[in-house]
Fold this protein.
Amino acid sequence: MKRSLSFRKGWPLPACLLASACLAFSQASEQLAPHAGAAIHSTAEMAGVVEVTYPAYRQRTSVLGTTGKIQYDEERLARVCAPLTGRVIEVRARLGDAVRAGQPLAVIDSPDLGTATSEYVKADADVARTSAQLEVKRDVYRVGGVAKRELRDAENEFRKAVAERKRARARLSMLGVPEARLRGVTADSLDSTLVVTAPRNGVVVERNAVAGQVSVYGQSDTPSSLFVIAELSSVWAVVDVYEPDIPRIAVGQVVSVTLPSRPEKPYAGRVTNVAASVDPVTRTVKVRAQVPNLVGVLKNEMFVNASIATGDERVLTVPQAAIHREEGATFVLLETSPGAYRRQSVKLGEETEETVEVLEGLGPSDRVASTGSILLKSSAH
């Protein structure tokens, strides 16, 4: 289409020249821009260079990316509480200490423990006394010195004493007193102190016990746990997944966790739980994964990026060489007949170094130019 340009009287010469140049550039662009529906033909020289291929289906592992944070594994966490009311007189573990099961953590002085131990000593003495009386009654009964009713009374007293000692021992056991400490205890060796020990191996990640603190069993103005011990060889990665993606998540799927500071170092784990409710504020569901942490790099409350392998899927792909991008448009050169092509707009998905997923615009029976297609594109100008 020809365009004419008339200059108004009085325009300065530079403005006239600029307007003339713009018109010439516009006409040249219209002539060079390839039309989306125009046919593109290959030449004889291109025949041995341009390769034509079919889109191919490939298996791809679908990955869902999300974010979350590291938390202690609650199954490997132990909260150490005071089993009785008393005063903390000594603290033997510090925050960050690695402890073993049975290792002393603190010492508590408790009047309740003294009373319970005294009751046990008394009950043990009653068992010895009633046992001796029962043996005497049996010997006398054999020679006819006492009635059978008196023997039964002695047996009942002995049973009561045994039951009372059993009750006193159970109370001491509930208070955390080991069985070995009860052996040989007498009224002269009563001790009102209790050593609180670690219930499992791990690291002290929280310490609320201080010397002089009064801990009241069942109620306290201090935190209920004197210590919190965590076994850190495995941790939880708790991530957020939006509602539309929840059907893709299942227990047992592989999770790859990376730190923002070290994205090149992944930590593999597996999904162990999908929450039963949606957060009303963020509209996300908490997904929990178990992640080994043998080196101890993953710390509680660290932010992480997570990739969840949601399964394999079949996708249609073409070589990267077949894809062209121009002025915001993405297209391939579709073969319409031998040696003839036209532009075909496509919508792309995930890409790799060699192939790219095609979401819309092509089918498996279409033939597209791949290697050397840039020559066809150039010849269209």
In short: The CA atoms of residues 224 and 252 lie 35 Å apart. The first helix runs from residue 13 to 32.
